[in-house]
Amino acid sequence: MKAIERRIADLWFTEYQTPNLRLGLRIEDVLLNKQSKYQHILVVDTKQYGRVLVLDGAIQLTEKDEFCYHEMMAHLVLCAHPEPKKVLVIGGGDGGVVREVLKHDIVESVTLVDIDEEVIRASKTFFPTVSCALDDERVKIMPMDALVFVKEHHDEFDIAIIDSTDPVDFASGLFEQSFFEDVHAALTESGMMVAQTESPFAEPELLRDAVLGLRHTFERAFLAWGSVPTYPTGLWTYAVGSKKFDPRIQRRSAPTGLKYYSDTMHSLAFELPPFVKEIVNGGNLKEAKGN
């Protein structure tokens, strides 16, 4: 009788990034798998990228590459603003952006608005190096709808960082011009905002519409880009709106010890590839998506 070969468990997480694109990661362990009031939360340990936080099937961060995203989201605007004392972070319950913001000693307060407290709890439990600044005395956590919050605050913040999830369900409003107008009103006379605006390959229409919305709302609006390996296509964009100062000009040096953002990276991030320029100026969206 032939001996049965040893079977090996082969467990994978697959993110369907677009209808025609998916990313697969080999799982070593499932650490959290639960449904919150707002979304499904999954935390897994993977061979390639360490621990991974997944919301509604979409990767939010991995231990190995989260710094690429969080450093760009925070330092692009904090290094462009001469006195970023009061900072608003919308979304980002994992705490990665807050961690980076507090690397600037000039910051006096950070208000974190995230609708889902379960995400904050999950990050504190499973991602201590990401959530490490959430208990800082300068941080105020507001577990509520950001669309409501910004309507109730005017002329209050120097910086607003929109660390939103994908534009679906409760987060869809965070990509609309009406929301940008409310953020504009919540900022001081020299305020700046930055929002993640997805991949020019995967979501060119969303990218174009977000930039157009900022151009109609803010006195100055520009797009920056960078690399985040586990986000769809690995090429990511950041739309920056400013009431007064040109965000392409770095006014304050980068904090020490960073791994992605740097003084040189600041200006280079605003140098867009020609195909991205074409997208934000209303060019060929089908070509950008490879259709």
Automatic annotation (TrEMBL):
One of its GO terms (cellular component) is cytosol. S-methyl-5'-thioadenosine binds at Q39, D114, D145, A146. The active site is at D163. GO terms for molecular function: spermidine synthase activity. Spermidine binds at H70, D94, D163, S164, T165, D166. Coiled coil: none annotated. GO terms for biological process: spermidine biosynthetic process. Its EC number is 2.5.1.16. Keywords: Polyamine biosynthesis, Spermidine biosynthesis, Transferase. It holds the Pfam family Spermine_synt_N. Residues 10-243 form the PABS domain. It is an enzyme of class 2 (transferase). It catalyses: S-adenosyl 3-(methylsulfanyl)propylamine + putrescine = S-methyl-5'-thioadenosine + spermidine + H(+). Pathway: Amine and polyamine biosynthesis; spermidine biosynthesis; spermidine from putrescine: step 1/1. Catalyzes the irreversible transfer of a propylamine group from the amino donor S-adenosylmethioninamine (decarboxy-AdoMet) to putrescine (1,4-diaminobutane) to yield spermidine. This is Polyamine aminopropyltransferase. It comes from Acetomicrobium mobile (strain ATCC BAA-54 / DSM 13181 / JCM 12221 / NGA).
